[in-house]
Every structure is written in C-alpha cells, then in structure tokens.
Amino acid sequence: MTLGWLGIVRLGLVQMAIGSVVVLTTSTLNRVMAVELALPAALPGLLVGLHYAVQLSRPEWGRRSDAGGRRTPWILRGMAALAAGGTLAALAVALMAWSTGPGVVLAALAFALIGAGAGAAGTSMLALLASAVAPQRRAAAATITWLMMIAGIALTAGGVGAMLEPYSHARLVTVVAVATSAAFLLSALAVRGLERAPARPDPAQARPSLPLVLRQIWAEPPARRFTIFVFVSMVAYFMQELILEPYAGHVFGFSPGRSTTLAGMQNGGVFAGMVTVGIAVSGFRLGSLRLWTVGGCLASAAALIAVAAMGAQGPGAPLAPAVVALGFANGVFAVSAIGSMMQLVGEGRQGRDGARMGVWGAAQAVAAGVGGFAGAALVDLARLALPTPSAYGLVFLLEAALFLVAARLAMAAVAQARPAPVPAPLVPGE
C-alpha cells in the first residue's frame, strides 16, 4: 500500500486529534491545578511526567508494526484510551477541589491512560506514515502531519479557552469531555478504510526481540547522534510547557481562559514557523535542514530570554508578542528536526523503520517528562528564595541555555539529512 497526498492528510487528522487532547492536559488542566487549586506546580509536573514515562513503550509499538499486521486497530485503541484519559483527567481536577487525595489518585490513572493512548496511536500512525509513503514524499508528509497537529493544538486551546469563560469545574469537565469525544470520532473517520488490505506477517520469519532491536539501532551512529540531539532539545522545548500559563497567571494576572488563549497564540506561532521552513526549504531551497534546525534553537533561546525579561514589568508587559515569537522559533526548530527524522529513519538496518521511530519517540517522551517536571519543580524551589517573577525567569534562562547546547549538537546530528523534496500538487482522491 502506498499513500497519496489525500491519505497523508487523513493521517494528519489523527495527529491533529492527538495534539488536541494532549494540549488540554498540559496547558488547561495544569494551569487550573497550579493557580485555581493552588497546588504545588510539581504535582502537574509529576502527572505529565507519568504520561511521558508510559510512552517508553513506543519502541515496542514500532517493533510490532515492523513485524507486520494492521496498524489501524492500534490507532483506534490508542485514541480511545487517550480520549478516556483526557475526560478522566478533567474529572480528577474537579475532584481535587473537594478532596485532594482521591483526585490525585484518579489523575494518576487518567494520565497513565493518556500516555498509553498517545504512545499507541502516535507510534502506529508514524509507522504507517513511514512505511506507506514513498521515500521522496516522507519529509513533506511529516511537515504536513505536524502542521495539522499544531493547527489542532492552536484551535483547541483557543476554542476551549473561550468556552471556559466564566470558569467553573463543571464547565471544565463538560468542555473537555466534548473535545476528547470529538477527537476520537475525527480519528475513526480519518482512518476508516485507509488500510484496504491487512498486511500479514511472514510466519517463516522470527520476530526479533526488543532488546536486540534496540542494540542494533543504538549501534548505528546516525541514529545514536540523533537520539541524543532529540533528548537534549526536547528537554529544552518542554521545560516551559507546564510553567508558561502559571507564569501568565501568577505574574501578569491572566484568567484561565486568557492564559489558555495565550497557549493557542503560542501554538499559532509554532504553526507559522513550520510553514516558513516548509516554504523556504521545499519551495525555494533556502538553506539546509541543519541550518534551520540550528537557527531555530538559537532563536528559541533568544525568545526565552525576552519572555524572562517581561517578568520585571509585570501586568501590562507585552507578554503575548514574546510568547508568539517563542512559538515561531520553536516551530522553525521542530519542523526542521522532523524533516531530518523522516530522512534518517530509513538509514541503517532494513526493517527497523518503525522501531527507529519508536526509539526517537521514546527519547522525546522521556525528555518531555524530565523537562516538564524539572521546569515545574525548579519554579517551586526558586520561589522559596526569590520573588515569583525572578523564579520563573531563572527557569526560562536555564531553558535558553539548553537550547544553545542543542544547537551545538544539531551541527553533527542532522548533518546527513537532506533537504525535503518539493512536494507534488495535492490531487483530490489520489
């Protein structure tokens, strides 16, 4: 089976649905726990870290995809778990307002479901994308699907932010339940009939064990270098994820709806950054993937310094433009790295594309968990000794330093990645 552009867009709808559910847990629910419920920022950091820890199963999903069989059922099961986890997480936050202990227990179950669902659906979708898309279309396909994910995140954050006003816990549960149900239905419709014939594994071939597959991939220098780059850059990328909205609430007086809208604006900037790189590299051949990746890391560091500086001004400071600039720089870095990933996924031992994608996904998941928790915990610790604006600013500056390290690593990690080819026109029904 070879997917045309319409099939790629349909898989992009799955990626969009995944992003729309995850953004609710990492932005809206995180902010409510930290600000409205006045719980330590480390709590949502631990919960989000749990959901990323569960995604260490990603290489296993990739290994199973490599061994054959239909991937659509794994996508649907993953999306069902993701939607259920998102709704349970909203219920858990509402329960915390009445009884913190039971609410935290329910939240732990919910975030574990979210991690399992995102890992199963996301890795299966990427494995299908990598195996069913022609090599010359892979980089463009990755850009399309990630742009759609960012669009889903931005639209969901903006729409949910508007629907949450005036805020109440009951309204939160209702809005999140509707959003997660819509995400599952969108995914089900997107993959319906996409795999026209089941892919059957060859019974004569023994399925290699996961430890063997991981050793083989780690022995490949390009895969190993790229894994290290992914880990460091994603720690930097996710350190601000759990503290940006509380920062807007604590320092600038933003309401829950307004801070959620701010997250939507940030992801709008990410979308614009991705489009810019796609047009520049694929359309006009301006620069290499390595150049754009390094530039995105450096620009992200500069934007974080600007966000940190806003804290000294407090309410009334132009926080939104700085956050949009941060999003734009993050988008430039992210789509360049994704293009490199789609080019590198086929380099090395054959029959390991899905597992290789799973290794990079697991590195991202671990880094996201470490980065999210570290950012939140460091803010809690810094606030014990520093004024709140300075505490947040210190963490943003640390994140900027990590982006500088990531820029250096990118010089070697993506050196072999070729620019994405110019995509063919989108032909309806292809």
Distance N to C terminus: 13 Å
The named CATH superfamily: MFS general substrate transporter like domains
- Look up the CATH topology: Growth Hormone, Chain: A
Overall pLDDT? 84
Q: From the 3D coordinates, which CATH architecture would you assign?
A: Up-down Bundle
Largest sheet: none
Low-confidence stretches: 416-430
Order of helical and strand elements: HHHHHHHHHHHHHHH
Question: Which value, in Å, is the CA radius of gyration?
Answer: 21 Å
How many domains make up the coordinates? Answer: 1
Query: What best-fitting shape do the alpha-carbon axes yield?
Result: globular
- Secondary structure category: mainly alpha
Beta-strand percentage range: under 5%
* Total number of helices: 15
Helix content class: over 70%
- How many beta strands in the DSSP annotation? 0
Which CATH first-tier class would you pick?
Mainly Alpha
